[in-house]
Amino acid sequence: MAERSTQDTESLPNHGMTEEFAEMLFGTGNSKAEIITYGANCHCGAVRLRFPFQKLEEIPVMRDNCSICNKNGYLLIYPKREDIEWTRGKNHLKSYRFGSKTKDHLFCPTCGSSIAIDFHFVDNAPPGEILGINTRMIWDFDESKLKEFRKGNGKEAIDPAYKLDP
Fold first, then answer.
1. Beta-carbon contacts of residue 127 (< 8 Å; ≥ 6 apart)
2. Which of 11, 17, 4 lies closest to 29, judged by CA?
3. Taking the CB of residue 158, how many other CB atoms lie within 10 A of it?
4. How many Cα atoms within 13 Å fall on the side-chain side of residue 84?
5. Residue 51 and residue 43: Cα distance in Å, rounded?
6. Residue 166 and residue 19: Cα distance in Å, rounded?
């Protein structure tokens, strides 16, 4: 069950990033945004986490068209790493890198659930500060309640392009 509170989000950092990128990572900047503590887990339950974030129904969720987001069904939000509490299985996670090999795509090796993307090697993100959490892992997640998606174009923006020989 989600816990609710209100948090002042005006003080969220932007770390020299563009305002749009910082907003995507740290939230909308709404000073009276409702913050919910979400619980999430992989399909088998070997990996579990909790984190506070703005109410999903009130913010745009990232839907990117890059190959891995498309194949794994990622719908991403970007809580700060320091706010994520791994309650089970953090050391159980495995990672996969492709393309530029700068982002660890974290998954459960038991059930294969794609949990998160770690941006600790991305040049324009604050090192170590964010994770892209797959909202589909959140308890009682209902995609139909989402009002807005931020559409990414990783298919054309990420180098090298994804190609698999037939």
1. 120, 121
2. 11
3. 20
4. 23
5. 18
6. 41
